[in-house]
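Blackboard transcription, Thursday session:
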Amino acid sequence: MFEIVSSIFKYAFTLIIYIFIYNIIRLILMDIRSMSDKGRSGDMPRYVLKLSGVKGIADFVIEPVYDLNKVTTIGRAVENTITIEDDFLSATHARIIRKRKNYYLQDDNSTNGTFLNGKRLGKRRVRLKDGDQIHLGRCEFLFVMEKGQVSHESI
Amino acid sequence: MKAFKTLTKPLNPLYMLVLFDILAFFLLYIRKTPFDTQALIVGGALLAGTLLIYILTGIFQLGDRYMLLITAMLISIGELILYRLDSSLGLKQAIWLGVSFLVYFLCYGLFGLITFWKRIIWVFPLLSVLLFLLTMVFGTTVNGSKNWIFIKGMSIQTSEIIKLLFVFFLACYYSQRERLMDKYPRIWVTLIFMMLSYTMMGLMILQREWGTPMLLFLVFTLMLYIFEKDLRLFLLNGIAAAAASAVGLLFVHHIRVRVEALVNPWKDIAGKGYQITQSLFAIGSGDFFGRGIGLGRPDFIPDVKTDFIFSAICEEMGMFGGAAVILLFLLLAYRGFKIALECSDTFYKALALGITLIFAFQAFIIIAGVIKLFLLTGITLPFISYGGSSMVVNFAAMGILQRIAALRETEGGC
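(Written on the board underneath:)
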């Protein structure tokens, strides 16, 4: 009796485990797809960091425009999203965080501080507005809305 | 609320899991005459615990639910096989699973509350050495490795704890490296880091344990490759490993025996090759769908409850069952890597990666060992093998990994 049940159940077990695995993979794929859709849809205004100036001689590599992710960290260490080897920056200097439609600037206990429109940031994160001036180390950035190809003209 | 939307789908993986558990424990119930009610109690408790964790995770968004489902499937398969091998062991393992569930939530909560992880980098190597000394003084030798402490009848395998400490140490170092290198000369920081890492791995070799140091070394090498800017360090590490294994092969009797057993186990079936050949016989007799639970003879395999549990799965659930276990581990590793990739903080990134690598490599080393693909070493198959300390530590690590996943989702970056 047990032998018969067990020999039938072995096919059932195999079937169940593989349906389980198939469905996990399907759900994971659905998750990935919905995530990349969110990234692609144009309903959210996308902002970028545009370099507006460097004080003194720039002895480090710097890009004219940086895209912003959900979390963008800025600093000297390679682990950052934006790595700038400016000696006046800390290893992890500051970060910009996107929450829903807003972007926030936060100083990560940097030695030389992060300045927003000339004012030094405290410990709390501050919401960014279009056209804000961000000053870290020797670099000055503008926080502006991305306008397709326009932002790349200024190189 | 997305967790509840999928509940209406008939083929939701959760239902598959519940169905699997019901069938499995019904089978164990009718296996004995008179019927074994203990099997039903164990199965019911396991199912209730799994569902409770799944529902709590769904409501409060406590991390990644796919990872939870995969883990639940792995422990269900493990519990089924263990209970079939020895019902008293199955009961013990169920109690350990209960403890593990508590530890899981404890680690989940504590890890989020404590924020000073990065500042206590010295604690981890220190604790490992302390644990090592404890086992040296109070330890007992089991299967040739002196790495067990017995406290009031309970045995604790310290190498399991050191595994987690090692990953924490690596994560702390890589999040603090820039700051340390600003303060002290770069070469000294690197040297001390390498020395401490090798000490933590080397101590276990002194206890005559080979599996865990190998596992930690693989994790260490991959972390070096990922986080070091300078590849020379990685290459140097590889050369050192090659030299060390050559020396081990030539002079350490224990390793030579293992290599001989791997190359040609048929030469000495009754002696050196006994374990591996028995394992191969079991896997071979399983065929595609297995012999059926309770119909094979996995008791011929030595150490079948811990190291060779994969052979028992292959014998009774077939090649498809074994492949499913490997697939589940692959998916688990994929989810772990995804969590690590989405973290912006180096500490959380390195920690998530380290924990995932531990699960992945541990499963790889032992499965490859029992199917004669790689050197056989005595480590457990995570979430499946019998073993209290192994289960508790794995669930603690899983709790931490889930917390990192939750931090990433709710706080916009950890």
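Lecturer's comment: Residues 2-40 of chain A form the longest helix (39 residues).
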